[in-house]
Amino acid sequence: MEFSRTTAPEIKTISEVKFPSPSKYVLDNGIEVNAFNLGSQDAVQIELLFAVSRNEGKNPLVAKAVNEIIGEASSTKEPGILNEAIDFHGAFLESTYSIDHSSVTLFTLTKKLDEVLPLFEEVILDAVFPAREVDIYLTNSKQKFTVNQEKVDVLVRRLFSQQLYGDHYYAGRTELHHFEEITAADLSDFYNDFYKASNCSIIVSGKFDDSIFESLNKSFGKMQLGKKSILELPVLNNQIGKYFHEKEGAIQSGIRVGKLLDVDYGSEAYFKLKIINTVFGGYFGSRLMSNIREDKGYTYGIGSSVSYMKNACVFTIATEVGADVTNNTLIEIYKELTRLSEELISEDELSVVKNYILGSILKASDGAFSLAQQFKGVNFLGEDLSFFQKYISVINTVTPLELKDVAKKFLQPDTMLEAIAGKK
Amino acid sequence: MISFNKFKLDNGLTVIHHQDDSTPIAAFNILYNVGAKDEDESKTGFAHLFEHLMFGGSVNIPNFDTPLQMAGGQSNAFTSNDITNYYCTLPKDNIETAFWLDSDRLDQLAFTPKSLEVQRSVVIEEFKQRYLNQPYGDVWLLLRPLAYKVHPYKWATIGKEIKHIEDATMEDVKAFFYKHYGPQNAILCVAGDLDLELVKSLSEKWFGGIDARTKYERSLPEEPKQDEYRELTVERDVPNDALYMAFHMPERRSKDYYVADLISDVLSRGQSARLYKEYVMDNPKFNDIHAYVSGSMEKGLFVFSGNPAEGVSLKEAQDLIWNAIDKIKTELVSERELEKVKNKVESSNVFGEMSVLNKAMSLCFYELLGNAENINQEVDKYLCITQEDVQRVAQEMFNKENCSVLNYKAKKK
User: Which helix (H) or strand (E) is A43 found in, with range?
Assistant: First the structure.
């Protein structure tokens, strides 16, 4: 067979990606259920999402502690009983927590759903926070916290957030004394106020039959409305400056460079920023990786991201590099940032990036669980899955000149905040 | 149940095809039967360094990733003590791009000096980032040589020391390639909505012309049965003490491997598992405690690891773990407890079969273990385990003379 190894096989460019819309159902108390019923495996995932700000807690630990302890005990079951019962059916719970939301997800085989759902209901509706278990939790998380304070990537993330967000609760600012200051009652109060219907939505994905909606209504349609969490508290102006936290004995330094972006979620400028970010530091072939890892060998990995939260959109460059090349790395980072607003991206480079992103979007559409994750992300910020169609149309039409203009407007090196933890 | 087809090319390459019409994404996974255990003791870290070099361009294609990204794909790889595994996912219509790229690097790497120099630095930074600049990062660098005296499992995949990576030469790299990267030493799995005939013809087209290389006959020194209690105490600049206890366990293909794995589930899977329930919640002596198996192909390790709570000495922590061990050795695990961990095995198997990439990786791994067909008997091997099996294997495995202890002490400030 005659063929050339030097010529790439023909490729098909992705022009569209189908994102099936979820079927919707509303529980008696108004909780919205979005369902993706397209699994090929007999398994189901039910996520209860509570749109609750960490700021509602008495201190920065409360929301996370509630999220991690929930399921331990109920008003009628001693600690550990519920966990054992859920484990027994081969099911498991996963708690996830961010600054603006808390969620608890049940994973189970579909055939066990009838046995497991009442247990899940008890976890969510009837949780208690016994003082003894809360104390154990706090002691253990305090230990993890002290271990984390030894890691340069944790230290630098902390330094960066504190300087970028100032007094805003996004700054985090968890300190050792917070572990001493909270009580079981603080957790109960937070749970009783906010793990309630007015903050709750449900996403179901996997393979199931329509009777699941009736079951969900029976379990969660009676959840009280509770107190609505206030999520809007816009972050103030972008901060600039250079900050350094020295860590004795560090052989690598953690680096964060970034800024707040004043851009609307789902707007054309936002999508263009996502595309430039991919060029810059968003995939393996990115400029940061090509230059700082694949040419200079300064690091195991470097990347950048544009992430949108309820109250801020933030651009971040993150890496850990050999302490001796900390300054050289910064020089290269700024050099690459400058190029974005001074040079046009070549058509070749841009077409690789476009195809790469389209491939990633296709992958994101693959399977019920992945769709549920994508839906959760966009829905939380007020969009639906048509978000991806808008993104695809920007990808298909954007030009190097438009990207350069967006970089000029948003990504000038002198508008960045720089944080370093380690040695230099 | 995963159905698949399997065929072999004349040059010895094994190809597995799995059809899944539920996804627009195809997975292309190629496993090489080479890992850190195949290294020379004076040149460790090599299998992993080599994995990095596989992305540094091949003889006809200067850059591996760019054409793949152009085709909407992504790729990565990992190295263990046993295997080196490379994978791509991409839109199924572009599957030929993966065949082109991966066959070319198997045919011949470019071996550019620049690639070696850069990847050497990258791997050294990886060594620092993951093993040296992290609290407790060097645990496995200490525990392995304590538990293994002869078998090459005594060094970690990243290598024994940075110096070995610094010293690697181009001759070493080339020799390693020709020794281990032949078609007969590889297993390819292509999974997705693709016909068998297409996968057959693409395999033949891209891989068929690559010559078989001299077959590498592995002959590793067997680890003698441990017959002494070993204990190592180190002091490090960390906030809290940590304890590690390792026992040699049955090899991957034996029935008792599954029993040992299930024992680790009884002890440590989920919050209702024994160690967490007893020592973190009921009688809080540990901040955190786990038991797990190393999962390696040859005789691996069953490991307990824990962070004792404040005021609990490492000696007391050891005694507590021995108490948990005595209990599983002397009392039969309850029927409910056994059923619970079996149910977990069954459900995690279903969740594990959701992604086409997971399936492709597993098929290659089971083929390496003996036969890809075994992937469908895996759950049954757990389900037939009895209460007596659990007790017997615990009794055989958990003995002082089979135990290596690492006391990782926090330096007093």
Answer: strand A43-50
pLDDT tens sequence across B66-95: 999 999 999 999 999 999 999 999 999 999
- Taking contacts as CB-CB distances below 8 angstroms, the residues of chain A near B93 are 11-12
Among B68, B5, B405, smallest CA distance to B199 is for B5
pLDDT digits over A250-284, tens only? 999 999 999 999 999 999 999 999 999 999 999 99
The answer to whether residue B334 neighbours chain A at the CB level (below 8 Å) is no
Q: Which residues of B326-344 are buried (b: 16+ CB within 10 A; e: fewer)?
A: eebbeeebeeebbebbbbb
Mapped onto helix, strand or coil, the DSSP state of residue B173 is: helix
- Listed in sequence order, the DSSP H helices in A90-238 are 113-125, 131-148, 152-165, 176-181, 184-194, 211-220
Please say if the pLDDT value at position A1 is more than 70: no
Number of CB atoms found within 10 A of residue A334's CB: 15
Closest to A421 in 3D by CA, of A254, A301, A303: A254
pTM > 0.90: yes
SS3 B187: strand
Q: What residues contact B169, with CB distance under 8 A and at least 6 apart? A: none
Cite the DSSP H helix spans in A30-75: 62-69
Q: Which residue in chain B is spatially nearest to A278 when comparing CA positions? A: B69
pLDDT of residue B228: 97
**Of A88, A113, A179, A319, which to mutate for an interface test with B (greatest number of B Cβ within 10 Å)?**
A88
Mean pLDDT over each residue of chain A, to the nearest integer: 95
A10, A266, A355, A396, B239 from A358: Cα distances, Å: 17, 17, 5, 9, 45
